[in-house]
Amino acid sequence: MPTLFEKIIAGQLPATVVFRDARVTAFLDIKPAAPVHILIVPNKAIATVNDIADEDEALIGHMVLVARDLAAQHQIAADGYRLIINCNAHGGQEVYHLHMHLLGGRPLGPMVTRI
Ligand code: AMP
Fold it and tell me: What distance in angstroms lies between residue 32's CA and the mean position of ligand 1's atoms?
């Protein structure tokens, strides 16, 4: 079964795509948690961080560089932002196609609630 994000990458499901190249697609999160909330997704299907192969090293680096450039384009680079990749149940992963959240546009508070 293709994931939601595979369908977005294939153009079979609507999304507000803000960047696309041969390796990644970036689109607005449908339920934003901050004024800027973009998902940066590899075009290749990788389910979780656990499934990243050694040969994907450059692809993962590319995702970070795309996030850097999108942060600049959306005027959040100077104030700062957060990049998040959730993995599996304890990480809160909902969609099993690797994705990096780019969040910014307001102070984001503590990374996780301290216990
Ligand atoms: P995660 O919990 O890290 O798996 O994050 C999944 C994210 O995907 C959530 O922030 C959702 O709001 C977002 N999301 C789910 N469906 C869509 C969609 N069709 N288009 C854009 N974002 C989506």
Answer: 9
